[in-house]
């Protein structure tokens, strides 16, 4: 049943996309940017989920999706006025639907009362009876006795083609007015359709839900029992469907099976009442039949069985073998047009990752080769060296292209946060607006995936702890509705995501008090404001006193920081009393490669990310000044910039190096401040493949990751911000200690 | 024709793709005899099992044997209706 599992997996992947589309649409409607097409898109998304869920017998999901869809249909047709309340209801229903999908996928218990309640609200809003159970179909109107053969000659010795009028009114309460479209559908499943866990009957049921349907089954191709392949496909259905739905909705039903069946869908628009309509249809049919007959004897009218015409089974059966050919011609362009909008393929992520790994090896190999060439003393202008340069360009291009495969916009994750905001706002009774910017910013897929939890936690915190209660906000002269803002942007080769609120800011006195009580700091520890803010990230800081059931999920900000660090990122906090707090996440665009400057410090080879470097210079004695006990600054073009000895920050050496003997690498940190890193010498620039230290070993202060150099040695990649921050707090502490001892 | 013994089989509740093969085999084993097929247990039936049952009825009919469907369950009836078929197509009368 591997195929089955695989299809199911695809279904859930598609569900994710549909859910995203649905939520996106609803949010647009909420912002009053949506139009009819937006509602249609939402409707389609829900409908597709329902369709797929039906195939896998996910009844709860089908039932709820059905109710949801029906209410959406009310919105679409204008029966249900779109008010903010209605949109809110839709958004909450969307959340329930997401949960149902998730539970169907991952298992677990759905809160049945929540679903029931939501269903009722939806039904009420849509002005309809609660949705009926989908399976099994009730059969109130059917009463059958055992049918014994040999009665009246309803024989089946001739394979018949017997249209049966089906009314789904008894099965589905959805009331579909006699449609504006009449579709003539010819549908011949192939064995693959069944083997991929779809079933012709389910598709027919789906179709029936769209409107009034008349189905005729052509059994001419069916072999006798001793020749039949039980898992083969022999039946052809001719379906006559009158519905309000458009062609797209009809095609959507066949979306998952379009390559596993022969399908033709012809549409006629009907603008009149039933009777004249059917007359017209018959007239059209007659005309079509006549034309086709005139055109060619070989082409037989396929999907043109008159609605109410008497049936001549034998005659009607003849065209069956032709059906696949003609239907194929029709379905081909349809399939193509469906492919057109985003020509994409689904690729197993493992394959992409393997490709990326291999490209990484290629980069290492290429740099090793370059090193060998240099060591061999081959001239830079020789053919070999030039060829090697070309190889380097090519390698880089391959790398960029491969990375682009994994890059995805942060939009989905931002969208997911809007739900978090809704829920937390409901729970805390605060009114919150989420503003997002830069959703199109692209980041590595892995980074995006692993951002969900930290971001969720930060948003929860921002609303629960950051924003004040509405009445307090009014008192403070702020609008009652709080704003949580999420902004993503590319900044010097990294992506920065900021989560900010316009709340009260961090209550530093309280934070300090908590930290002292928890034994994180000494009661008299001298701390700067920034350091106090930073205490929020200290392990064990999260406290029962501040934890509500909103923020307190057993995850503290220390876990958030660790998960961001595990991604090679950094999280910083800045807060202004009365004006709010901003958390800033700085993340690498990719987890795989980096342009670096290879330097030596105390006999070690290190890599400084090129994205952080502004310039390099040789310090002169006159420019270097001591500042306080430990700190030194360097004067560059009239401004003083802290000078940090990498060797001593990383404890490679005890004594600070002589600035005049080394090179100063000017770097810019995430918060835009500059700093000069002292290194002993520069070896050169190189593209390096990042090998995570966290994955293979653990986090080390001042080290972002490691890499393998051309000569096969391991070099660590510096975490510039951490080194700068580390040296600062050293200095600050030394400073404060000195002040204290002086006092 | 002397009246042959009437065999009877009861269809299982889940007639999906996996059931089609065994169903065909079970029906074939009963070939040549009048057959009463009890359909009361059916909860779900897929297109392929309908095919097998249809083919059986046609085969029985060609053989001149009798095939009846007994106590068709609502789900079975619904499936037949959905497929645009008639219960009569699933039966064969003796001649």
How would you explain this protein's 3D organization?
The complex is a heterodimer of chains A (743) and B (95). By secondary structure, chain A is of the alpha+beta class. Chain A folds into five domains: 2-126, Up-down Bundle (Four Helix Bundle (Hemerythrin (Met), subunit A)), CATH 1.20.120.160; 164-337, no CATH class; 349-407; 410-588, 2-Layer Sandwich (Heat Shock Protein 90); 593-742, CheA-289, Domain 4 (OB fold (Dihydrolipoamide Acetyltransferase, E2P), Beta Barrel). In chain A, 44% of the residues lie in helices and 20% in strands. The N and C termini of chain A lie far apart (78 Å). Residues 129-178, 271-281, 296-341 and 543-554 of chain A have low confidence and may be disordered. Chain B has 95 residues and is α/β, with parallel strands linked by helices. Chain B has a single domain (6-90), classed as 2-Layer Sandwich (Transcription Regulator spoIIAA). Chain B is built from three helices and five strands. In chain B, the strands form two sheets. In chain B, strands 1-3-5 form a three-stranded parallel β-sheet. Chain B has a two-stranded parallel ribbon with strand order 2-4. In chain B, α1 (17-29) packs parallel to α2 (47-63). The radius of gyration of chain B is 12 Å and the shape is globular. The N and C termini of chain B lie close together (9 Å). The relative contact order of chain B is 0.21.
Give the tags.
heterodimer, A: alpha+beta, 5 domains, 22 helices, 44% helix, B: 95 residues, alpha/beta, Transcription Regulator spoIIAA, 3 helices
Number of domains of chain A: 5
Shape of chain B: globular
Overall mean pLDDT score of chain A? 76
CATH topology annotation of chain B: Transcription Regulator spoIIAA
What is the helix fraction of residues of chain B, given as a range? 40-55%
Low-confidence stretches of chain B: none
Which residue ranges of chain A are poorly predicted, with pLDDT under 50 across at least 5 consecutive positions?
129-178, 271-281, 296-341, 543-554
Q: What percentage of amino acids of chain A are in beta strands?
A: 15-25%
Number of strands of chain A: 23
What is the mean predicted local confidence, pLDDT of chain B?
87
Number of helices of chain B: 3
CATH topology of the largest domain in chain A: Heat Shock Protein 90
């Amino acid at each position: 049943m591997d195929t089955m599992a695989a299809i199911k997996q695809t279904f859930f992947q598609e569900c994710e996309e549909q859910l995203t589309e649905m939520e996106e649409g609803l949010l647009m409607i909420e912002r009053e940017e949506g139009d009819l097409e937006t509602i249609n898109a939402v409707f389609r998304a829900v409908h597709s989920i329902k369709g797929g869920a039906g195939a896998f017998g996910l009844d709860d999901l089908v039932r709820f999706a059905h109710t949801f869809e029906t209410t959406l249909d009310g919105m679409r047709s204008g029966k249900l006025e779109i008010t903010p309340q209605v949109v809110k209801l839709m958004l909450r229903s969307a959340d329930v639907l997401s949960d149902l999908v998730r539970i169907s996928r991952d298992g677990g218990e759905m809160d049945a009362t929540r679903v029931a309640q939501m269903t009722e609200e939806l039904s009420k809003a849509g002005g309809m009876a609660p949705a009926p159970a989908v399976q099994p179909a009730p059969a109130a109107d059917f009463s059958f006795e055992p049918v014994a053969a040999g009665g009246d000659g309803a024989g089946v010795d001739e394979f018949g083609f017997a249209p049966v009028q089906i009314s789904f009114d008894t099965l589905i309460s959805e009331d579909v007015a006699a449609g504006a479209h009449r579709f003539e559908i010819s549908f011949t499943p192939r064995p693959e359709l069944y083997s991929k866990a779809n079933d012709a009957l389910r598709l027919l049921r789906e179709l029936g839900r769209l409107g009034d349907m008349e189905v005729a089954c052509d059994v001419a191709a069916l072999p006798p029992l001793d020749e039949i392949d039980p898992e083969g496909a022999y039946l052809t259905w001719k379906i006559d469907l009158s519905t309000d739905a458009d062609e797209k909705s009809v095609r959507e039903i066949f979306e998952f099976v379009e390559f596993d069946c022969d399908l033709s869908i012809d549409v006629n628009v009907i603008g009149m009442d039933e009777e004249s309509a059917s007359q017209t249809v018959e007239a059209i049919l007659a005309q079509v039949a006549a034309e086709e007959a005139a055109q060619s004897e070989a082409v037989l009218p396929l999907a043109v069985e008159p609605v109410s015409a008497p049936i001549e089974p034998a005659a009607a059966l003849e065209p069956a073998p032709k059906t696949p050919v003609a239907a194929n011609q029709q379905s081909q362009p349809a399939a193509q047009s469906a492919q057109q909008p985003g020509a994409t393929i689904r690729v197993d992520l493992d394959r992409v990752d393997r490709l990326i790994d291999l490209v990484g090896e290629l980069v290492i190999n290429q740099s090793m080769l370059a090193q060998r060439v240099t060591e061999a003393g081959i001239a830079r202008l020789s053919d070999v060296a030039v060829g090697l340069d070309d190889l380097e360009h090519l390698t880089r291009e391959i790398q960029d292209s491969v990375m682009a495969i994994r890059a995805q916009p942060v939009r989905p994750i931002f969208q997911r946060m809007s739900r978090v905001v809704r829920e937390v706002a409901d729970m805390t009774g605060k009114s919150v607006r989420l503003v997002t910017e830069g959703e199109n910013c692209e980041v590595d897929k892995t980074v995006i995936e692993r951002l969900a939890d930290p971001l969720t936690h930060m948003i929860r915190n921002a609303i629960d702890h950051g924003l004040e209660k509405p009445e307090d906000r009014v008192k403070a002269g702020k609008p009652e509705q709080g704003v949580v803002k999420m902004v993503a942007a590319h900044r010097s080769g990294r992506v920065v995501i900021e989560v900010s609120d316009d709340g009260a800011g961090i209550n530093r006195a309280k934070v300090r008090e908590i930290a002292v009580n928890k034994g994180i700091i000494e009661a008299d520890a001298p701390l700067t404001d920034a350091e106090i803010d930073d205490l929020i990230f200290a392990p064990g800081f999260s406290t029962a006193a501040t934890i509500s059931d909103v923020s307190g999920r057993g995850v503290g900000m220390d876990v958030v920081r660790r998960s961001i660090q595990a991604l090679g990122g950094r999280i910083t906090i800045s807060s202004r009393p009365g004006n709010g707090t901003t958390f800033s996440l700085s993340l690498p665009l990719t987890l795989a490669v980096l342009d670096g400057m290879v330097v030596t410090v105390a006999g070690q080879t290190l890599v400084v990310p090129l994205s952080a470097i502004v310039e390099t210079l040789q310090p002169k004695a006159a420019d270097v000044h001591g500042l306080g006990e430990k700190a030194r600054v360097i004067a560059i073009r009239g401004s003083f910039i802290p000078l940090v000895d990498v060797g001593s920050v990383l404890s490679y050496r005890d004594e600070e190096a002589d600035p005049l003997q080394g090179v100063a690498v000017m770097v810019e940190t995430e918060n835009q401040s500059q700093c000069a890193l002292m290194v002993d010498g520069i070896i050169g620039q190189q593209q390096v493949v990042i090998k995570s230290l966290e994955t293979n070993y653990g986090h080390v202060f001042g080290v972002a990751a490691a890499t393998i150099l051309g000569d096969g040695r391991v070099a660590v990649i510096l975490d510039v911000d951490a080194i700068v921050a580390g040296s600062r707090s050293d200095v600050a502490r030394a400073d404060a200690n000195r002040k204290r001892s002086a006092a | 024709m002397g009246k042959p013994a009437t065999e009877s089989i009861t269809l299982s509740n889940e007639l999906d793709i996996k059931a089609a093969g065994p169903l065909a085999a079970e029906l074939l084993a009963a070939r040549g005899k009048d057959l009463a097929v009890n359909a009361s247990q059916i909860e779900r039936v897929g297109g392929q099992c309908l095919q097998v049952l249809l083919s059986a009825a046609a085969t029985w009919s060609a053989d001149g044997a009798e095939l009846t469907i007994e106590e068709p369950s609502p789900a079975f009836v619904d499936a037949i209706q959905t497929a645009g078929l008639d219960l009569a197509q699933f039966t064969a009368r003796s001649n």
